[in-house]
Amino acid sequence: MILFIAGTSDARELAIRISEEGYPLLATVVTENAAIELERAHLSVQVGRLDAAEIAQLIEEKGMSAIVDGSHPFAEEASKNAMQAAEEAQIPYFRYERESQTFQYDKLTLVNDYEEAAEEAAKRKGVVMLTTGSKTLATFTKKLLPIEDIRLIARMLPRKDNMEKCEELGLPQKNIVAIQGPFTKEFDQALYKQYGVTIMVTKESGKVGSVDEKLSAARELGIETIMIRRPRIEYKEVYSDFPSILEALKKTVQLQKH
Question: What gap in Å lies between CA 180 and CA 158, rounded to an integer?
């Protein structure tokens, strides 16, 4: 059986493809919505974040033969935990990650982390739209909400826990855009215009993460963009397309098909 960490929409598609190839698979996801998507495809799913010890326990209990890590490019801890557990159990570890992109835009500033992004936004002031999710929202609210010349708009998934987090952090309801993508360039432009956005903050998530659309929309409107680089993690085996990782699994993992 393969333990599959399904942290992105394209990773979940890959999990389904691997299962269709006949390999028994247990997918782990963070949200109930992601679980529903995989359950509809008749995959076994477990909801919740796992640390290295919990992954190791799953490997032992289920007799896992390999780990496929399809966590989000910014889920650094998830990848490190998976690699550690795979090494301790002496089973193969495969990383699936969206291909990184290169962007050319004179109003684009690349930074290394969320704290640096908040610092850069604070220097510029104006209307700042976050498209970085809720996980690190506190980093931005702490830095930017006290500044009178900044209006902070947060775009995030329409989940109850996200709304509760916004309330706890003091982000006004009128500054919350609760919506689920993917979005077109035209939609992003309409959103920027609606709120009078002067600075957009995003992550280097990859093409499937709709970074192209967000950046193209900002570029055409002349909006400054702050982009957070991906965490730099040393993976032994990384694949960015389905055929390559499926071929690697077939060559490396001796599994009893169901």
Answer: 7
pLDDT one-digit tens code per residue, 80-121: 999 999 999 999 999 998 776 667 788 999 999 999 999 999
Residue 235's pLDDT band, with cuts at 50, 70 and 90, is confident
38 close to 11: Cβ distance less than 8 angstroms? no
Q: What is the pTM of this model?
A: 0.75
- What is the DSSP annotation of the chain? -EEEEE-SHHHHHHHHHHHHTT--EEEEESSHHHHHHHHTTT-EEEES---HHHHHHHHHHHT--EEEEE--TT-HHHHHHHHHHHHHHT--EEEE-PPP-----TTEEEESSHHHHHHHHHHH-EEEEE-S-STTHHHHHHHHTT-TTEEEEEEE---HHHHHHHHHHT--GGGEEE------HHHHHHHHHHHT-SEEEEE---GGGTHHHHHHHHHHHT-EEEEEPPP----SSEE-SHHHHHHHHHHH------
Cα(219)–Cα(204) distance, rounded to whole angstroms? 16
Q: What is the pLDDT of residue 257?
A: 46
Mean pLDDT of the chain: 90
Q: For the segment 153-166, what is each residue's pLDDT rounded down to a tens digit?
A: 999 999 999 999 99
